[in-house]
Every structure is written in C-alpha cells, then in structure tokens.
Amino acid sequence: MLGLAQRVVFCALLGSVYASCPQRCECSEAAHTVKCVSRDLRSVPTGIPGYTRNLFITGNQIRRIGPECFKGLDNVTNLSLSNNRISEVESHTFAGLRSLRSLDLSNNQLAVVHPEAFTVQNQSLRDLNLSRALYNHSSVTDLATSLRWSSLGMLRGLDLSHNGLIYLPSHIFSHLGSLQRLQLSNNSLVAIHNSTFSGLDALLELDLSLNSLKTMGEEGLRELDSLPRAHLLLGENPFTCTCGIEPFALWLNRSQGRVSDARGLVCAFPASMRNTSMLAAGTLTLGCHRSGAGADLALQTSYVFLGIVLGFVGLIFLFVLYLNRKGIKKRINDLRDACREVWEGYHYRFEIDSDPRLSQVCTSADA
C-alpha cells in the first residue's frame, strides 16, 4: 500500500507539473526553463511556472507586450523575446521581473517604445539586446527617451547593431553610467558628434565597424578620446583618404593600443588610395601641402596666361588701328568739320536772336 501511495503522489506531482506548463510550450523544472518557440503565439502565454529562470518566447506573432504579460515571474533571469514582430513595448512591461538580468528583443519591429519600457525593479538588468529590433532609424528617438527614463544605471551591455541608424541623439547614453559594452556595428552612422558618448565613463568595448564613416572629424575624435578605457573597432568603414583624413590618420597612429583593428583599416576612396593602410595615410600631410602649393602655382600660371592673352589682343587692336590710320584720320576730320558747321549755325542763330536790329533786317529781307 505504501508503494502504491508513493506512486499516486508522484503521479499527482508530475501531473501538476505538466498541468502548469502552458499549451504549445515546453517546460523543464530541472533546468528552470520554459520554451515557447515558433508556436504561432499571438500573445505571451499565461500559466508560466513560477520556477522559471530562463524563458524563451521566440519566433511567434506577438505584436505588443505590456506589464500584464509577465506577472508573478519573480525568478526569471533570462528572457528572450526575439523574432516575434513586436512593434510596441509599454512602460513598466518588465517591472515585475525582479530578477531579470538579460533581455533579448532582437529581430523585432519596435516602432513605439514607451518612456519607461525597460524599467526593472532594483535595476537588475545587465544585458539588453536590441539588434535588428528597431522598425526604422526614426525609432531611435523613442529609444533615447526610454534609455533616459528606464532606470538602467546598472546595465553592462547594450547591442544596437544592424538597425540602420544614421545618427545618434545627443546624450543618448548619458544615463548608462555602468555600461561596459556598446555594439553599434552594421548601421549607417556617418559621423560621431553631439556628445554621443557622454556619460560612458566605464565603457570598455565600442564596436563601430560596418558603418558609413568616411572620416572622423575633430569633434568625433574628442568623443572617442572621452572614452580612455574603451577598446574600439572601426573596420569595414568607407574611409576616404583625401587631405581631410590627416588628423584622423595621425590620431589612429597614436591610438593603436585602443583601436583593436587599427592595422586592418584601409582606405576605400579614392581609387588611387584603395586598400592603402590608414596608418600610412598620415604621411599624406606633406603630399597635401605640396598639392596646395601646386594649386597656388597653377592659379598664378593662369593669371599670367590670362595677362599674356589680353596683351596679345591689345597688340592686335593697336595694329589694326595703325593700318587704318588714314581712314580713321579722314573720318575724324569729317566729324570735326561737321561739328564745326553745326556749332557755327547755332552760333549765328544765337547772335540773331540776341540782337533786335539784326532780327528786323532779317525780317525785311524775308519780306
């Protein structure tokens, strides 16, 4: 009887375990894991066991998540919601996950991110994966607000790669004082400015590879120098090695210890410099000065050539005048005689009009 009773109790416990697992999900109490992978779910399933530490809800059709989705899951430390087509994350969605340390929202379509979307009690969140998560580059404005308002002071790693970002709002990371790893690779960033990395005093890794950086201006270099502890990745950017690249090339030579892929950085444009090492591009300083001197010399030569041409035209004009000097002299004399006759006629009429006696004589003669 005792053995039978033990079997009944075991079956009851086993049945309760299976009963607590949501439909279309797989649960493992031993591994503290629940997986709801590619089950065509339209929302976060209810009835997730309280023992769950690792929760994987991926490859489904979940459009929105809010605070009601994760109630009673105090033990969840790793949450993956990747590849669900999520477009909206409401404020305090994860506030009930008191132990949450890693959140994966990669491969979604986040268009609306509410200001306190990533707020977690006790600031427990350490890693946030938003790779391929933003619907378009304009969503970064919502994200910037959320990063400021979501109490992420203890966040260590942030992945924003593969999001097509063309710019980063000013001070976007200023409230992430404990951030150590920042992934910005495979975007479309064309410049670093506006105090982008302000407040990242603890940053140890910064990946800016596979962007659209053609050079790094003085402001961008100051931004990178504000991260003295960070190791940088700058590979696969279309660096344009013209005279404007000099300050960056010189900075790169001084900072080889921090730029992990410095020796692999090459020029992409112009064609004559393609695949030239960026470290060697610093020698363009002298070439650029020579180029400037050549430009000045070319300009001076143009002025001299223009003067010669104008002088030659003047000589031809004078030669033509010389050949036609007689005809010109005759035309001048004729013009002078004509002017003299006109003047004498005006003078005669003036004398008649001014002397009454001459006027009367002229009148009698006309009669």
UniProtKB/TrEMBL annotation:
<dbReference type="InterPro" id="IPR000372">
    <property type="entry name" value="LRRNT"/>
</dbReference>
<keyword id="KW-0472">Membrane</keyword>
<feature type="domain" description="LRRNT">
    <location>
        <begin position="20"/>
        <end position="54"/>
    </location>
</feature>
<keyword id="KW-0812">Transmembrane</keyword>
<keyword id="KW-0732">Signal</keyword>
<feature type="signal peptide">
    <location>
        <begin position="1"/>
        <end position="19"/>
    </location>
</feature>
<dbReference type="InterPro" id="IPR000483">
    <property type="entry name" value="Cys-rich_flank_reg_C"/>
</dbReference>
<dbReference type="InterPro" id="IPR052286">
    <property type="entry name" value="Wnt_signaling_inhibitor"/>
</dbReference>
<dbReference type="GO" id="GO:0005886">
    <property type="term" value="C:plasma membrane"/>
</dbReference>
<keyword id="KW-1133">Transmembrane helix</keyword>
<dbReference type="InterPro" id="IPR001611">
    <property type="entry name" value="Leu-rich_rpt"/>
</dbReference>
<feature type="transmembrane region" description="Helical">
    <location>
        <begin position="303"/>
        <end position="323"/>
    </location>
</feature>
<keyword id="KW-0433">Leucine-rich repeat</keyword>
<dbReference type="Pfam" id="PF13855">
    <property type="entry name" value="LRR_8"/>
</dbReference>
<dbReference type="GO" id="GO:0090090">
    <property type="term" value="P:negative regulation of canonical Wnt signaling pathway"/>
</dbReference>
<dbReference type="InterPro" id="IPR003591">
    <property type="entry name" value="Leu-rich_rpt_typical-subtyp"/>
</dbReference>
<feature type="domain" description="LRRCT">
    <location>
        <begin position="237"/>
        <end position="289"/>
    </location>
</feature>
<dbReference type="InterPro" id="IPR032675">
    <property type="entry name" value="LRR_dom_sf"/>
</dbReference>
<protein>
    <recommendedName>
        <fullName>LRRCT domain-containing protein</fullName>
    </recommendedName>
</protein>
<keyword id="KW-0677">Repeat</keyword>
